[in-house]
Amino acid sequence: xxxxxxxxxxxxxxxxxxxxxxxxxxxxxxxxxxxxxxxxxxxxxxxxxxxxxxxxxxxxxxxxxxxxxxxxxxxxxxxxxxxxxxxxxxxxxxxxxxxxxxxxxxxxxxxxxxxxxxxxxxxxxxxxxxxxxxxxxxxxxxxxxxxxxxxxxxxxxxxxxxxxxxxxxxxxxxxxxxxxxxxxxxxxxxxxxxxxxxxxxxxxxxxxxxxxxxxxxxxxxxxxxxxxxxxxxxxxxxxxxxxxxxxxxxxxxxxxxxxxxxxxxxxxxxxxxxxxxxxxxxxxxxxxxxxxxxxxxxxxxxxxxxxxxxxxxxxxxxxxxxxxxxxxxxxxxxxxxxxxxxxxxxxxxxxxxxxxxxxxxxxxxxxxxx
Length: 370
Description:
This is Glycosyltransferase family 1 protein. It comes from Thermosulfidibacter takaii. The protein has 370 residues and is an alpha/beta fold. The chain folds into 2 domains: 15-184 and 338-353, Rossmann fold (3-Layer(aba) Sandwich), CATH 3.40.50.2000; 198-334, Glycogen Phosphorylase B (Rossmann fold), CATH 3.40.50. It contains 14 helices and 16 strands. It has helices at residues 29-42, 59-65, 86-93, 103-111, 113-116, 144-156, 165-173, 207-215, 248-255, 269-276, 286-292, 304-316, 318-332, 337-353, and strands at 15-19, 23-24, 47-52, 54-55, 75-79, 97-100, 120-124, 159-162, 178-180, 198-201, 221-227, 231-235, 238-244, 260-262, 279-283, 296-299. The strands form 3 sheets. It has a 7-stranded parallel β-sheet, sandwiched between helices. Strands 12-13-11-10-14-15-16 form a 7-stranded mixed β-sheet, with helices on both faces. A two-stranded parallel sheet has the order 2-4. Strand 15 (279-283), helix 11 (286-292) and strand 16 form a beta-alpha-beta unit. Helix 10 crosses helix 13.
């Protein structure tokens, strides 16, 4: 496929190179978040060069998959599978800032900063910074090597963008220049019109927990997205419909037909739920409460009976159902991209204005396998 690279726009005051290790198109949530971030920045006059491992298929279909219309002229997607090509790319495109949420790319860019001279910004989505386990849920296990690498990146990065307040507060307390910026959402003209008995779950992970909960609440119709194929099944007195992977805009249209929207974590799906104005049911964790505030009905993390009880409360109270929907619409305004992107642009522009000249902490990181 022909490389979709365009010549740099000399009128752009801020040119950002966003380095990723992803292939496009991708079904991963982080790919959607990256595309929306880049698109939102271009709407504010930032020229973005998005570096990906590979680009498959028709570029026009790629934009449709992520719901990006019209196609931003200032967003350039560059297939760049080998890191050794990154330095010539940075120098030739005259990027004023390098941005990434990949630890491997961050280490490479920081270790070679003495050559390219470009400020490097790292984006982290960790709730508990670099602790070995998630302090909220007790799940997950970071390797010692990963912990060490994150610590080096936080020390050396010119700026860190944090999705969660706990990490941002910790880094700010240590003097790291950081910005708190959770996911944003783009208005697509869709709003939830679904009834209380129609439940949406925009993930295929940990579906056993929600299936167990729905089995305890008669009369529900659960729609789970991300399956390998379309399928229906009975679950007690309730119905379950599995939907295959689909473009984001199509997913949003189908989600809008649900009245209740369930999340089992603090992921990107919450931005979709808020933008649709659904009645949100989420686990009672500091990270979800930080995002949703009083706009959701909470249940005990990991407890199917607690989730079932939350669903029953909505079933038995039409007033609660409508209150949650209105609260979602109100809360969603906090995360709309025009506002979020402006904060990010100002943060990046400030870093460019204070161009870093620090010596790398780990100059050998770019040699051999990272």
